[in-house]
């Protein structure tokens, strides 16, 4: 055998194998991210804020009424989202918001978090393991919000706060214009409300009369710092939708009507997309007089989960079939290469 010919074929084979390994690596990198989709069903514009590590494509943006926007986050990402309201930005993008302001003086939050009170959606994405997520009222409330998981495995429950807590906010917790509701910790600063000092443990820090107001209205949301047992949820390899002012179906409609399976259009890379008519009554609208808030909320969350199950398309691809295909392809290339050496 010609040594030069053998060496040439060996190099070609090695190069092909290296390229294949690199391609499979890129494929796995592509499927390991999660898509976060933000939907605004409020009757007004919301400016979502983003704080997390590593930094996503945006740290804050405008989301007009009836639109959606999507962003990709890598595995291992940890951070939070919230909605800013009553914002006023000039043509150069400078300004501030009435609630949830991040103090950056810009549409982009640039690494700063929400000024309380603000409803928070918090995430930690696993690296080949479970994601953890919750909706938190620990820093107060400014906007109704739910989080829905799609395309994942595990519990993957829908969580959030559907009730307009601004209407139920105790007078001593209300901000002056009634557009947000402070936590007892922010309002009074007492260690027993903040779970600080000698109260900095689950055994010492208990629910307060104020956190119970939040919990009774939003039973699946964090109401105080150690409210973990009923407020943290897990899912594996999912995409997530964060909806501001989600629709609240009545108990009768949730029993008698089929779930709305209209899939709102979304786009990646930060472009806005209309989400259709958005049928139903947004939070802050008319409430049915005799419905129990907790029962109504559970029914609404269940209806939302069923709708997700019905439409359940996820842009996040699961790696199992890719692994099997990639392994078979790699094995074939190696065998073919060395058979012809």
TrEMBL record:
- What species was this sequence derived from? Erythroxylum novogranatense
Q: Where is the composition biased (Gly residues)?
A: 267-287
The record's family statement is: Belongs to the thaumatin family.
For this entry, the protein name equals Uncharacterized protein
Identify the Gene3D superfamilies for this entry: Thaumatin
Note the SUPFAM superfamilies from the entry: Osmotin, thaumatin-like protein
Q: What single Pfam family name could you report for this chain, choosing any that match? A: Thaumatin
- In which residue ranges is the amino acid composition biased (Polar residues)? 251-260
UniProt cross-references to InterPro entries, sorted A to Z = Osmotin/thaumatin-like_sf (IPR037176), Thaumatin (IPR001938)
Where are the membrane-spanning stretches?
Answer: none
Q: Where is this region: Disordered?
A: 251-293
């Amino acid at each position: 055998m010609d040594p030069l010919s053998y060496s040439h074929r060996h190099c070609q084979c090695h190069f092909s194998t290296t390229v294949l390994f690199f391609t499979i690596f890129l494929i796995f990198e592509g499927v390991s991210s999660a898509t976060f989709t933000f939907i605004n069903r409020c009757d007004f514009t919301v400016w979502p804020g983003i704080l997390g590590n590593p930094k996503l494509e945006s740290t804050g943006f405008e989301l007009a009424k009836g639109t959606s926007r999507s962003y990709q986050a890598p595995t291992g990402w940890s951070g939070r989202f919230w909605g800013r309201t009553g914002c006023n930005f000039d043509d150069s993008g400078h300004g501030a918001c009435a609630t949830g302001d991040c103090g950056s003086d810009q549409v982009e939050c640039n690494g700063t978090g929400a000024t309380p009170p603000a409803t928070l959606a918090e995430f930690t994405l696993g690296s080949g393991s479970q994601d953890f997520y919750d909706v938190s009222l620990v820093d107060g409330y400014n906007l109704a919000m739910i989080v829905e998981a799609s395309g994942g495995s595990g519990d993957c429950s829908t969580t959030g706060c559907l009730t307009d807590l601004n209407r139920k906010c105790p007078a001593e917790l209300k901000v002056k214009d009634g557009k947000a509701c402070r936590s007892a910790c922010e309002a009074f600063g007492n260690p027993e409300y903040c779970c600080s000092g000698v109260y900095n443990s689950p055994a010492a820090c208990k629910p307060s009369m104020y956190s119970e107001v939040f919990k009774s209205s939003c039973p699946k949301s964090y109401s105080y710092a150690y409210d973990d047992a009923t407020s943290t949820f897990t899912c594996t390899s999912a995409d997530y939708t964060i909806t501001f002012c989600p629709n609240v179906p009545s108990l009768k409609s949730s029993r008698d009507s089929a779930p709305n399976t209209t899939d709102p259009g979304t786009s990646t890379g930060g472009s806005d997309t209309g989400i259709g008519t958005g049928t139903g009554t947004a939070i802050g609208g008319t409430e049915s007089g005799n419905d129990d808030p907790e029962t109504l909320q559970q029914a609404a969350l269940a209806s939302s989960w069923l709708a997700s199950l019905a439409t359940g398309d996820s842009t996040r691809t699961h790696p199992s079939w890719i692994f099997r295909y990639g392994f078979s392809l790699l094995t074939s290339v190696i065998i073919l290469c060395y058979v012809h050496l």
